[in-house]
Amino acid sequence: MRVVIADDQALVRGGFRLILREAGIDVVAEAADGAEAVAAVAEHRPDVALMDIRMPEVDGIEATRRILADGPGEPGDGVRIIILTTFDLDEYVYEALAAGASGFLLKDISPEQLVASVQLVRAGDALLAPSITRRLVHRYAARPGTVPTAARGAPAGGRDLSVLTPRELEVLGLVARGLSNAEIAASLTLSEATVKTHVARLLTKLELRDRVQAVVLAYETGLVQPDAGASGPSAP
């Protein structure tokens, strides 16, 4: 696995680099601002980019937009971006999702959590903590025009839920409520491997990059209502 770290603080970059390399993850480049991050991704084509939000010149949100705006075969194709910040604020989570990020982490996470998050995002299994997901969608989904297009970069036809089987629709609804694969498996009395297969298939059919886009799409299309996940499980 190849990773690019973008943060305007050298100490933060150095700390993350040491943590990831100790876990056997290759840090191929570092960037001190968003423009450097875009260039680093274009040059090194990493699997994952860790992107700080607040950076000079070009911030992390804009850098994410530029990277993920590339078409198939372009420098940003296939890279997954994790947004890093010291501020647990809804508007940052929302903007990160709207830009196409696959995850959102606070900088005070443990080394183990950082490594696990990078691995999950690389596997396409990433999702915000259920509590953050519900808080975000409950706040914004009911406001007309505020929910970002989930299938950013995907054709409009990719958002037709009729392509899904009844079981895949059921799984999508539970994903949108912030449930993990293990929780979905328990809820539907399925194996976790079967749930992963359903999730992978629905993402492919809907032409979505990852579970984060699936969550927003489920609310955007009305499959799940803004208050539907209010009583869901707590974040791990």
Question: How are the SSEs ordered, and which strands pair?
Answer:
Elements: E1 2-6, H1 10-22, E2 26-31, H2 34-44, E3 48-52, H3 60-68, E4 80-85, H4 90-99, E5 103-106, H5 111-122, H6 130-140, H7 166-176, H8 181-188, H9 192-206, H10 211-220
Helix pairs in contact: 2-3, 4-6, 7-9, 7-10, 8-9
Quick rundown:
The protein is of the alpha/beta class and 236 residues long.
Explain the overall architecture.
With 236 residues, this protein is α/β, with parallel strands linked by helices. 47% of the residues lie in helices and 11% in strands. The protein has helices spanning 10-22, 34-44, 60-68, 90-99, 111-122, 130-140, 166-176, 181-188, 192-206, 211-220; strands at residues 2-6, 26-31, 48-52, 80-85, 103-106. A 5-stranded parallel β-sheet has the order 2-1-3-4-5, sandwiched between helices. Helix 7 (166-176) packs across helix 10 (211-220) and helix 8 packs across helix 9 (192-206). The longest helix is centred in the C-terminal third of the chain and has 15 residues, at 192-206. The two termini are 26 Å apart.
| SSE order, one letter for each helix or strand | EHEHEHEHEHHHHHH
The gyration radius over C-alpha positions equals 17 Å
Numbering strands along the chain, what is their spatial order in the largest sheet?
2-1-3-4-5
Helical fraction equals: 40-55%
How many extended strands? 5
The number of helical elements comes to 10
Report the β-strand fraction as a percent range: 5-15%
Biggest β-sheet strands, sense, barrel: 5 strands, parallel
Mean model confidence by pLDDT: 80
Q: Which geometry do the CA atoms define?
A: globular
Structural category: alpha/beta
Low-confidence stretches: 144-158, 228-236
Distance between the amino and carboxyl termini: 26 Å
